[in-house]
Amino acid sequence: MTIDTLSNKIRSLATLKAEKRRLAEQTKDVGAQIEEQEREITSAMLDMAETAGLSCVDDFAVTVDGRRYSTVTKPYYSIPAEQRDQAFRALKELGLGDLVVERVDDRALTKVLMELSESAGGELPDEYGAIPVRFYEKMTISDRKVG
Fold first, then answer.
1. What percent of the chain has pLDDT over 90?
2. Which residues contact 78 (CB under 8 A, 6 or more apart)?
């Protein structure tokens, strides 16, 4: 390989890295646009469900281009950053250390804690109170293919 060839490869690498940064920024921008659209659509769907007199907003759905859209409220657990070490210790002591790999995946944590909660009648067993987690629900848009 010559210096010219090496220089061209380095320039190509720099171009690829710049493109990766541009795409990451574009992805971030599109993600923000998606969140804004979802907020607007969710708000409109909630208003329409209320206007229709539905007692459960999750019963309201719209079919567009062969796909059924409805709101769905999903539960989530997450660990506050300032309580990460304490939470990781508690998870390990409770036999859930396999969730801890530099960080706890919120989806995996939510799945396990929801299963435990459901099997205990809707609330986490007392011993899980040592895990410093926040519980919240987030309304998202369900998107399913029809028929």
1. 48
2. 106, 109, 133, 134, 136
On the CB side of 19, CA atoms within 13 Å amount to 6
3-state secondary structure the chain: CCHHHHHHHHHHHHHHHHHHHHHHHHHHHHHHHHHHHHHHHHHHHHHHHHHCCCCCHHHCEEEECCEEEEEEEEEEEECCHHHHHHHHHHHHHCCCHHHEECEECHHHHHHHHHHHHHHCCCCCCHHHHHCCCEEEEEEEEEEEECC
Question: If you average pLDDT over residues 117-146, what whole number do you get?
Answer: 82
Which amino acid is it at 120? A
Q: Is the pLDDT of residue 81 over 80?
A: yes
CA distance 57 to 50: 7
pLDDT digits (tens, 9 = 90+) for 20-52: 999 999 999 999 999 999 999 999 999 999 898
Give φ, ψ of 124 to 5 degrees: -65, 140
